Amino acid sequence: MKTIYDIQQLLKKFGTIIYVGDRLADLELMEEELKELYKSQCISNEEFQLALLLLRNEAARERDRHEGENV
User: Fold this and answer.
1) Which has more pLDDT, 70 or 32?
2) What mean pLDDT comes out for the span 43-52?
3) Strands annotated E in the chain
4) In sequence order, which residues have a C-beta less than 8 Å from that of residue 23 and are 6 or more positions away?
5) Whether 37 contacts 14, CB under 8 Å
6) 51 within 8 A of 34, measured Cβ to Cβ
């Protein structure tokens, strides 16, 4: 798993498609879905940690981008 697209494909395997139109909101919803899948033992600890890291890094980049636009 290397990209947000990979995470989307993982979620899709479990019947979850997330698209709200707001990139940051999408990332936050994906994180919540991953937490639920992990709690339900549907994904491994390694998959969960890697996906969480990718999502949080992307969310931080997205916040930085928005802050740059507002300055």
Assistant:
1) 32
2) 97
3) none
4) 62
5) yes
6) yes
- Give this prediction's pTM: 0.90
d(CA 49, CA 15): 20
Q: For the chain, how many helices (H) and strands (E)? A: 3, 0
Residues of the chain above pLDDT 70, percent: 99
Q: How many domains does the chain have?
A: 1
70 pLDDT band (50/70/90 cuts)? confident
Per-residue confidence (pLDDT) for residue 71, from 0 to 100: 62
CATH (domain of 13): 1.10.287.760
Domain span at residue 31 reads: 4-70
| φ, ψ for residue 42, nearest 5 deg | -90, -20
The 3-state DSSP class for residue 17 equals coil
